[in-house]
């Protein structure tokens, strides 16, 4: 029904009345428009602003071709707004939610009001500012009312408007301006800069540049140009400045249990639960926002540990600035979906802070909300009780109710020299934005052999493996024992496991000499791991169980022969150990050697 209504435009009076009574939202009625369009109570959804009339006209045609109620207004200073409306405040909020959810309008669209506009440029010949649309009830209206919920409509004279409060003279404005402290003066400069009238430093000194910006603002907003803003004018500018926060419902929240107090946008988040050290405020509408409060007892090690742990969470994207100091840290993560901002402080044996998570593309509003949170953040009292909240839902992939970031793919690999060079399967490193060894050591691809499915990695920092591979050059006996070392469960367990089997053939199914066939039940995470003979020498590297088109039967595995691995290493000038000795090794010794040699290889998006 919402989509059906939005595909309509202005209707005859009868249809307008029906929609007002039955539709989920609609343009203002004739009476409401005539009385409210001249005040700040008429709401619009601003979806775009352009820096010149030509680009605004070009952009608005695209919206008008697929959306109803499209209008265009000048904002002053050469800027032009594309808006939807007019609506009541409640209906504008509904339009904003629906269209943002359906990706019909930009995510950073917001609600604004008529007093922000100067002159209408679209549709041509329309002027909602001085001539709001009017409609009268007809016989058709009465007929339509019979099938709609009944609402009594009475006609009465509008009350006479109250005369505006007298503004201050220039001398009075100067006198009141002198009473402003430096913070208030800097805030006024910041608001003028936000409005596009001031481009100098925020210093609280009202010099020639500040006076010129005040005069320009007064001229655009229809006030007497004096270069000194009156109390009422400062209030009007503040209202413009805060319009983007409409619907955020920023309120001071004091959490006695956590010992934290700050402004929180309760219009978009609700308190959900405690999972120490976090208090969770989750999204309650279409805006995918989230707030965390942080509170726990601890020292510098606790603070720095939190800094490291938070970077493993899904709510903190890997890109973005971050800074850790002796007693505080700031951690910002951003990607195409979200911006996450965390600040934490060590004070009096307690770590306290907050996180704001906001959808990407809504930067102006995110910045303003974050500024209010930062400016209001205070701490007091004790830290959050570690036993607070209901921790009934437990998961290895969750940390205090937050999802741990997981790689796109995790496979095995093994060290082949003392500097930490790794051999793994080419599948594990294809299409990765980032490759890590053991979760936190970055590595790069040195070379690949796509024919045999082999890749060579080099860590970004030198490593000192406990053991390295020793490749077997001799031909092993058929049906002899073999074992593969790998992260079978893709890193869920802290170390590799050994899986035993036998050598079924020294060639592939088509006679390939670069392959060996095993009778062994391997798991996907084992791919890329070393395959050992009975004496602990490496026969080769375990290949994935599927090549993308075929999947091997259960109990059948293939190995990229050690000769193929050695050929790739030699091509890259990398030396590896070899042996011709066939023998046996104690299972305990094999397990120790395999564990020190095998490495978890993770591919991250």
- Write down the overall geometry: elongated
| Helix count, DSSP H or I runs of 4 or more residues | 14
Determine the N-to-C terminus distance.
39 Å
Average pLDDT, rounded to a whole number, is 82
The percent range for strand residues is 25-35%
Summed up:
With about 600 residues, the chain is an alpha+beta fold. The chain has 14 helices and 31 strands.
List keywords for this structure.
605 residues; alpha+beta; 31 strands; 24% helix; elongated; disordered N terminus
Descriptive overview:
The chain has 605 residues and is α+β, with helices and mostly antiparallel strands. 24% of the residues lie in helices and 29% in strands. It is built from 14 helices and 31 strands. The strands form 7 sheets. The protein has a 7-stranded antiparallel sheet with strand order 8-9-10-14-13-12-11, with helices on both faces. Strands 18-19-22-21-20-31 form a 6-stranded antiparallel β-barrel. The two termini are 39 Å apart. Residues 1-40, 134-164 and 394-398 have low confidence and may be disordered.
Blueprint of the fold:
Elements (H helix, E strand, L loop, with lengths): L1 H5 L6 H10 L7 H7 L6 E8 L2 H12 L5 E7 L2 E9 L1 H13 L8 E4 L6 E3 L16 H7 L24 H9 L3 H13 L13 H13 L10 H12 L7 E6 L4 E6 L3 E7 L2 E6 L6 E8 L2 H11 L11 E3 L3 E7 L3 E10 L2 E10 L3 H14 L1 E2 L18 E2 L2 E2 L5 E7 L6 E4 L8 E4 L3 E9 L4 E6 L10 E3 L8 E6 L10 E9 L9 E5 L10 E3 L5 E5 L13 E6 H10 L5 E3 L7 H11 E7 L1
């Amino acid at each position: 029904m919402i989509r059906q209504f939005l595909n309509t435009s202005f209707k005859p009076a009868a249809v307008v009345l029906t929609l007002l009574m039955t539709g989920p939202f609609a343009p203002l009625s004739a009476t409401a428009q005539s009385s409210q369009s001249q005040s700040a109570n008429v709401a619009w959804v601003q979806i775009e602003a352009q820096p010149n009339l030509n680009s605004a006209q070009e952009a608005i045609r695209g919206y008008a071709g697929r959306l109803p109620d499209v209008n265009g207004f000048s904002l002053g200073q050469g800027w032009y707004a594309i808006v939807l409306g007019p609506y009541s405040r409640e209906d504008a909020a509904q339009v904003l939610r629906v269209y943002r959810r359906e990706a019909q309008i930009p995510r950073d669209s917001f609600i604004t009001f008529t007093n922000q506009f100067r002159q209408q440029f679209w549709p041509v010949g329309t002027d909602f500012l001085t001539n709001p649309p009017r409609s009268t009830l007809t016989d058709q209206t009465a007929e339509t009312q019979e099938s709609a919920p009944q609402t009594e409509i009475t006609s009465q004279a509008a009350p006479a408007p109250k005369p505006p409060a007298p503004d201050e003279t220039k001398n009075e404005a100067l006198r009141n301006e002198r009473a402003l402290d430096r913070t208030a003066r800097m805030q006024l400069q910041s608001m003028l800069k936000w409005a596009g009238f001031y481009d100098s430093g925020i210093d609280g000194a009202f010099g020639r540049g500040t006076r010129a910006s005040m005069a320009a603002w007064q001229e655009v907003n229809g006030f007497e140009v004096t270069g000194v803003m009156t109390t009422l004018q400062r209030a009007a500018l503040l209202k413009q400045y805060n319009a983007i926060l409409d619907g955020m419902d920023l309120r001071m929240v004091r959490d006695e249990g956590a010992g934290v107090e700050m402004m929180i946008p309760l219009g978009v988040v609700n308190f959900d639960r405690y999972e120490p050290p976090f208090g969770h405020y989750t999204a309650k509408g279409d805006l995918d926002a989230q707030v965390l409060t942080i509170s726990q007892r601890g020292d510098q090690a606790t603070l720095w540990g939190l800094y490291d742990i938070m970077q493993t969470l899904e709510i903190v994207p890997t890109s973005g600035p971050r800074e850790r100091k002796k007693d505080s840290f700031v951690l910002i993560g951003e990607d195409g979906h979200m911006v996450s901002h965390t600040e934490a402080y060590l004070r009096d044996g307690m770590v306290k802070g907050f996180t704001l998570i906001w959808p990407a593309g809504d930067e102006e509003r995110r910045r303003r909300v974050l500024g209010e949170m930062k400016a209001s953040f205070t701490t007091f009292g004790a830290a959050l009780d570690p036993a607070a909240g209901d921790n009934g839902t437990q998961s290895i992939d969750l940390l205090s109710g937050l999802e741990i970031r997981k790689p796109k793919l995790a496979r095995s690999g093994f060290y082949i020299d003392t500097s930490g060079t790794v051999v793994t399967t080419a599948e594990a490193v294809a299409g990765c934005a980032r490759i890590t060894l053991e979760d936190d050591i970055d590595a790069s691809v040195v070379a690949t052999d796509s024919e045999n499915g082999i890749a060579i990695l080099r860590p970004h920092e030198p490593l000192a493996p406990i053991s390295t591979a020793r490749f077997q050059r001799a031909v092993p006996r058929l049906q002899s024992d073999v074992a593969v070392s790998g992260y079978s469960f893709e890193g869920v367990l802290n170390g590799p496991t050994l899986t035993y089997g036998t050598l079924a053939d020294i060639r592939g199914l088509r006679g390939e000499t670069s392959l060996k066939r095993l009778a062994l039940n391997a798991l996907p995470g084992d791919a890329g791991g070393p395959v050992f003979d009975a004496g602990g020498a490496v026969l080769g590297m375990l290949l994935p169980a599927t090549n993308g088109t075929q999947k091997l039967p259960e109990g059948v595995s293939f190995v990229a022969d050690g000769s193929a691995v050695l050929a790739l290493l030699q091509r890259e000038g990398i030396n590896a150990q070899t042996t011709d000795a066939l023998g046996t090794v104690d299972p305990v010794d094999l397990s120790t050697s395999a564990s020190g040699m095998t490495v978890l290889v993770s591919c991250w998006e």
